[in-house]
Amino acid sequence: MKDHSFQSAPCPGRRSRRAFLADLGMGFTGLSLGAMLAEDGIVRAAEASSEFSSTLPLAPSPHFTPRAKSVIWIFLSGGYSHLETFDPKPALNKYAGMTFDKTPFENPVNSPLHRKRFRSVPSEDINVRDVYPTIYPMQVDWRKHGESGIEISDWWPQLAKYADDLCFVRNMWTTDNDHAAENQFHTGRHKLDESQPSIGAWAHYGLGAVNENLPKFVVLGGPTRSDTRESIGSLYLGPQHTGIPLALDPTNPLPFARRHADQTLDQQRHEFDVINQLNELSAVEYPEDQALRARIRAYELAFRMQAAVPEAVDFSQESQATLELYGMNQDATRLAGQRLLATRRLVERGVRFVQVFPSPYGAWDSHQKLKDNHTRLCATVDLPIAGLIQDLKQRGLLDDVVVVFGTEFGRTPGLEQRGGSNTGRDHHPNGFTIWMAGAGLKQGHVHGATDELGYHALGDGHYVTDLHATVLHLLGLDNRRLEIPGRKRLEIDHGRVIDDILA
Q1: pLDDT digits over 390-404, tens only?
Q2: What is the pTM assigned to this prediction?
Q3: CATH for 70-241+317-501?
């Protein structure tokens, strides 16, 4: 791979007239543009990668008739316990305190599935964190809900009312047993592998815009911290496909595009026109600078978004009943409620993919005091998420929108015992549960299962890229056809559509 981080200037006698005029035209104003690009991180991104190509093909339309128009991707960072949420296991209570080998079931640690789906970053002799052998009982009761009789724990009383609208996948698995799994859940790649674009970036790359005044890929509440930016990243697809984080402040949702108080709209439009002209002059000499071209489009979009985005995140026109539906009148549920209500308003206005983090980074990581932590955390999101489902239903949006609800991994059936812990569960990538709802999906349906102890995803299970392939399929995109010239994706990157959950 060539290093383009530094390029010496060509011999003056060989410089073209157009290149000379381009440099002359940039002048001191070009320095200003450079500062703007550096401030936005574009210069650094361009220096860090030489993989952008002006020949990247864009597919601004679906491959086949879509079932859905938009995706709401809800992610709970930290790893909620599948056992105390959507995959209750009575055997954990029956055999509590026993070791795996004392139960009538096959010891899950001896299963070949363990080797197949486990990939520790440190030495496996040291990092044995997912094989704690002493069974830890469930920390909450559960019951069946709806006509479908789906088992949901008592920590989700509001969401449980919509059991017949949900579609559960109980045999998900991944391989990273640490929190880099947050990126793996969105990109399909382990920390030790080459990074890949996120699911939101692939959706952005494959589909055209519904509303030209709003971004196609919006992020609310994230990325949760700097080392999780891959979860919204676009890498070799080009920076124009990266998720755009928005603030839920209608007076300033886009700080990078806000006009100065003493600047008129016409003055700012003129400023953007000048920047665009300077960019185009620079593009004469650097025609393959994909990052610069992406920034040209970004500034144009930012200008158009100044009116559209504040309106989209302004709740003043929402009824009091709607605000209460999302829990906006309660301290515990207000933050998640704001993000989820904004999500509904964005997809209602044509945003293709909204990735929303209703909880802070790692909040669900309950190594200790799982009962206390999950009791509190479920109470912060249960009502707002149920409100989102009800709101989408009553507005007819659930016919056009796919809702995905997930986390990076589950929690161990065994009691975590590191550092004397005796009240929590450790990370568990071997089997966990996500759910979906909306366009093109079965309702009140459970697909797949884990074993009696909730340890392994049974059968082939579904690696995270199966979820990606399914979501893209509902959007009318074939994941195998989203190929880039010069880039070879692995078989695991493509995933396979989970046909059983399709309506």
Answers
A1: 999 999 999 999 999
A2: 0.82
A3: 3.40.720
